[in-house]
Design a protein that fits this description.
Layout lengths: L1 H18 L7 E5 L5 E5 H7 L3 E8 L5 E11 H5 L9 E7 L4 E4 L1 H4 L4 E3 L5 E4 L3 E8 L2 E2 L6 E5 L4 E4 L7 E8 L5 E5 L3 E5 H9 L8 E6 L5 E8 H5 L7 E2 L2 E2 L3 H6 L2 E6 L4 E5 H4 L6 E6 L2 E2 L8 E3 L12 E7 L3
Parallel strand pairs: 1-13, 3-12, 14-25
Antiparallel strand pairs: 1-2, 3-4, 4-9, 5-6, 5-13, 7-8, 9-10, 9-11, 14-15, 16-17, 17-22, 18-19, 20-21, 20-25, 22-23, 22-24
Length: 325
């Protein structure tokens, strides 16, 4: 019996040691516009850079509000000073440990983003500070840290797609600017670059990048990357959402409607809802050969193996569901 007690005691001590082991050290890699790279410990950076603190929360693309939380973190602009800062004409690419990517424009990095109230109602553009947080509600190294957030003098609520979690790399890149596409159906959704990137790089669900190699009219071949059109339609087709993901309205698509895509120069492409429904071969691309689209077709282009050649228009500014049942 004594031997059993000793074994149990040893197992208990081992379990306690495992529970009390320190959390992995938080680190972030900074990459400047010239390629200069610097990996630093968040704990060490806190000793050298004044920490920002405040209350903030975020609004998911579905409209749900999270927070507010008491946050502490390092101002991103101060971190970037270590690799040459954020020159005019540049933006910031943020990469998470799971491969999720988000690119912020120069003005967004400097805190000029849309704010919301505690009920998720849109308010004015804010003058906030982008912060890499390491502490939430008194917990250092919380699940998801280090995580981006926007802090202000008062409680700030901003779009959830900016709140990248498990940040691994902050990379200064040429500024691609911001854009928006209006998606209209039973509901209306304003898709901006941040929301699109959130859909395109989401590591779970149907929000994944697809590719399509297109032979252009001049005979050259290019690899396009994007998300299926039906994923974008799910933001406005009235099916609601499950968790943090929009659901596609299959029933409405089967009843039949027309998807009308309009370009900046007035071109129009129309597709039947049954062709678009859960079809990964009808996609809206944002990259060509790994780069942003050329100015003539920026920011998005309709492509795919099941898209008629004359419907592969670029410079998309609006997507509408018309002739609804």
């Amino acid at each position: 019996m004594a031997r059993v007690r000793i074994v149990l005691l040893v197992l208990l001590l081992l379990a306690l040691a495992a529970c009390s082991s320190p959390a992995p050290e938080l680190q972030v890699t900074l990459v400047g516009l010239d390629g200069t790279s610097h990996t630093l410990s968040v704990a060490e950076a806190i000793k050298e850079i004044p920490v920002a603190s405040g209350e903030a929360g975020f609004v998911k693309s579905t409209g749900a509000v999270s927070g507010p939380y008491e946050l502490e973190g390092l101002p991103v602009l101060a971190l970037l000073d270590r690799v040459g800062g954020l020159p005019e004409g540049t933006g910031l690419e943020v990469e998470a440990s799971d491969g999720y990517l988000m690119t912020l424009s120069h003005s967004q990095v400097r805190g000029q983003v849309l704010t919301y109230d505690g009920q998720g109602k849109a308010g004015p553009m804010g003058e906030l500070a982008l912060v890499l947080t390491h502490e939430r509600d008194g917990e250092v190294g919380f699940d998801g840290a280090p995580r981006l957030a926007y802090l202000g003098d008062e409680v700030a609520y901003t779009d959830g797609h900016f709140w990248v979690r498990d940040v691994e790399t902050l990379r200064v890149v040429p500024d691609a600017g911001d854009w928006s596409v209006t998606i209209t159906g039973p509901e209306t959704y304003l898709l901006d670059r941040g929301a699109y990137q959130s859909l395109a790089t989401c590591p779970s669900g149907d929000h994944v990048n697809y590719t399509y190699e297109l032979q252009e009219a001049d005979g050259t071949s290019h690899l396009y990357e994007g998300v299926p059109l039906w994923v974008l339609l799910s933001t406005a087709d009235g099916a609601g959402y499950e968790g943090s993901h929009f659901r596609f309205n299959d029933a409405l698509a089967r009843e039949g409607y027309t998807v009308r895509i309009t370009s900046r120069d007035g071109q129009v492409a129309e597709l039947d809802s049954m062709l678009v429904m859960r079809n990964q071969n009808v996609m809206v691309a944002h990259l060509r050969d790994g780069e942003s689209l050329a100015e003539a077709i920026y920011p998005l282009r309709l492509v795919g193996s099941e898209v008629p050649a004359d419907a592969m228009i670029g410079g998309i500014v609006a997507i509408e569901m018309v002739d609804l049942p």
